[in-house]
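Hey L., structure's done. Input below.
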Amino acid sequence: MDTLNPGTPDPEKMETLRNVAIIHGASAAMVIHAKDIPVDPRVRFKCMIPKCYMSGRCAHCPPYGYSMEKTRNILKNYNQAIFFHVRVESAIIAAKNISSVIASGMADDAGNLYSLGGHYMLVYTLVDMIRKKAMKLGFSATEGFSAGNCKDVLCYLKQSCRKLNGNGKCRKPDISIPSMESVGIDVFLLAAKTGWHVFPIGGQCEPEFVKRGMLMGLVLVA
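Output:
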């Protein structure tokens, strides 16, 4: 079993959860200890300075969502976690103008927008599946974090986040979760600690300069 400072009281259950991710589409998954999850306020600040196009437009995105204090308190209440990633081809995740295409809400002719959206949706789905399996196995609590903002993934065709600009009720409350970055978790550092080779992808990246792309998810269990 792949582990990072496991210390788990029931490794068989954790391995079952890890396998849920692998069987259903994750490229890799590891059992980690909650205390090894790095939290840094600079990560959350990057959503606001310079301002991300989604900042203030999604209930889970800064300045909304979990504060740094909330994130740290959550982590204190959990022992173990499943950390996984989904591989995305460089030609999709670093496609030309993909960032502007996402922000504009207009699909590109190559279909990269919807293909990338499908990969994000897989991450959300895997987090949901792992959490449900954990509860069936007898874990008392779970907390999930995904990649990207849930507005683009779950409500892309909607004009606004209903929790912010409607009746206050999320359209997808069972699967809507914050991203790791939005709550201040340093995903790149965590991935590096696991031994995964990650490559930052900026708005001007070209596919040939990105060796591999990945989207990551995290499920805490106690």
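Residues 3-221 form one domain. The chain has one domain: 3-221.

-- N.
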